[in-house]
Design goal:
By secondary structure, the protein is an alpha+beta fold. The chain has one domain (4-273): paralog of FGE (formylglycine-generating enzyme) (Alpha-Beta Complex). It is 20% helix and 20% strand. It contains six helices and 15 strands. A four-stranded antiparallel β-sheet has the order 4-7-15-8. Strand 2 and strand 3 (17-20) form a beta hairpin. The longest helix has 14 residues, at 118-131.
Amino acid sequence: MIVVVSSLMGLLVIFGFTINKKKVKIGDFVFIPGSSIAIKDKGVSLDSYWISAHEVTNKEYNEFLADLKNKGKTKEYEICKVHNEKWITVLFKKYSLYSEYYSSHEAYATYPVVNISHEAAKLYCEWLTENCADKTQLFRLPTKEEWIYAALGGCMHSNYSWGGNYLQNVSGMFLCNYKRIGDEYIHSDSENNLMIIPNKKDTFTSITAPVIFYWPNDYGLYNMCGNVAEMIDSNGIAMGGSWNSTGYDVQVTSEFMYDAPNPFVGFRPVRVKKN
């Protein structure tokens, strides 16, 4: 159950989170102006582009899978299918319900798709291109530089996408979905021989959050830090850290290395004009 604590200056404060009343819609893209930026002392010139305001959702991805199946694209469907077993094989058996329900149940429709391959994400972008009414538009995965520039939201000297260097605001509200580590949160799970961090101060520390949650950056992009690490055009690198990353590892420049589908990695496409 969600309880509204207060409503101030057009904002809702819910269970310690600040949420913009003017939410973007699922499927919205945000314009990012061209610029020249320096990343690790390397100068890069970027043309303008559009990027999804949020990570690709389970519902969006399932529509893609259904279209592949309906069109008899068996090879593509096999490449793009969701590897739900990864909730258990990468994590633990306590995630067995997510293995069964996360990608398909309507309760998780607006959560980010995970457990898919880099090739699957690229094929999803190609599908968007094919089905776009404007045939001048091309969808693809972002470059690392495009992703970082969009994540910074115009605040070029901060560690995190909200333009600051702290994980909580002055009211103690968490600003993204990441793994909290503190003695007061930890208890023993003897069955799995683990130390578990329960959800005492946050709803989502042991799972992803909905794609439109927490506070967007100044470009209007949600969850650029934390929630799921996001694939870029280079296979094996995902940016921004995930729900299972520590606070240090959800910085804008944080890189998560992966070699297979897993519960920590998702993606969001960019849109550009075809050459």
